[in-house]
Design brief:
The chain is an alpha/beta fold. The protein contains twelve helices and 35 strands. Helices cover about 20% and strands about 30% of the residues. It binds zinc ion (ZN) (2 copies). The site of one zinc ion has 8 residues, from helix 12.
Length: about 550
Amino acid sequence: MSRNCRACHAKFIVLAEDQHFYCKMSVPEPSRCPQCRQQRRAAFRNSRNLYRRSCSASGKTIISVYSPEKPYRVYDSAIWWGDSWDALAYGRQFDFSRTFFEQFAELMLEVPRPALFNKGSENSVYTNHAVYNKNCYMCFNAGYCEDTLYSEDVVVKCKDCCDLTNVMESELLYGCVDCLRCLHSKYMIQCQNCSDSAFLFDCRNCNCCFLCYNLRNKSYCIENKQYSKGEYLAKLAELDRGSLSENHASRQKFEALVDEEAVHRALITSQSENATGNYIFQSKNIFSSFDVQTSEDLRYCYDAWDIRDCMDTFQTMDGAELGYETHASSVSVDAKFCNVSHENHDVQYTDLCFNSSQLFGCVGLQRQDYCIFNRKYTKSDFEQLAARIVEHMKATGEYGEFFPVLLSPFGYNETAAQEYFPLERREAAASGFKWFDDQSPDSQLSSLTGPARLPDRIRDVEDGIVGQTLLCSRSGLPFRINQKELEIYRKLNIPLPRLHPNERHLDRLRWRNPRALAKHACTKCGTQVVSTFEKHRPANILCEDCYLLHIH
Ligand SMILES: [Zn+2]
Ligand SMILES: [Zn+2]
């Protein structure tokens, strides 16, 4: 059935399989298209913008995703998870003369929020949505990493790395995207089991290669041409001397090779059955979903690991089942319209609730059941009241969708939505999103070391650079070089960056296509394929059969 999206006004189709799921979850059909639904959930996730502020419980200075001017009570995470406060103390009666979301927004302002999500980590204060990291700095959606900086979405089991996006089980890497088990390398895109290399795209089991694409099991290649070890080392000494100018030239050459010479898979999927979407691995029956691992029966899910039978989820993992319109709702079963709520069963409209069941419209609860607006009820009273509120919400047009964007604690430009759906301030306002103006002293610095004064080659950089404030040559924002980071630049022969880590992050994201599917013809055989190459189209986008023929 075709509908018009209430937000962007584009037509979208509600498929029979979608309807089946809505029926199973007892929810009405959505009023927004899949893209607008995805954008709305992403507008609730700020994983990477951190601020100094005071803890509303202890008064101490803490690091948080909530900037000091945000109107919430923010607790140091250790206090938030402890027993010194009780979220039930904020309980209140639902008022049927008012809308649900108006009352929910008031509850969100009262109940404390944890400063960050960081579990089991050591010496890694500046990490968020992060678990079991050691000596890491500015890592987000990261787990089991060590001595790693400025890396995110996701990084798992990486050591001595800097500037990574979606990299796992790797060591001593810089500036890499979508890599697995790589070692001592820089500027690698979609590579696996490669080492001692730089500027590689879609290579497997290669070592000592430079500026290459689509190679398998090779050594000593430059621009896909085979050299002897001696020739390779002599050429490399000329090409890669750790200077900024040579680095720029190599990068330009690399981007041209990837765009014009390399072959690209229309969609990156492997060991998967009946799957449409991008970056889908070891999964089955996946429809229009992105970044999915070991999952089954998903529709419109993004960043899903090990979940099944879900629709419209974002950043959901670890055995979640029957999830609908959730953000970060892992290990939950039958969870609808939930924001950052883990290990729950049979819950609706929750924010920051954990290890609970039978909740409706609650904020910040842990280990509770049968609660509505943070007030506890008997089982039968809960069931009656929840049913009445659902009817009330249907009458006000509120039931059946994720939280309205005005309830997001963050400005649009602080969230993941800005990365996938970039908007100007004016456009964001027109769509009802909030905007954040950074007023922190760090953002107001001036008259600092400009990039022009930095040495061209890394070997000429002195130790005193650590701690100095530099200005980003693109955004003008100040940034600093960390000691660990300098060591990585020296080990990998990389010139000092002239860009703020945020700009470097955005540059890496350009290697990952938008999360939207477009149809076109395979460059080799003409078969119609679905891909994520819509605006940016390299010369060779191949169907899977042609890709395999070309590579092997
Ligand atoms: Zn739309
Ligand atoms: Zn083809």
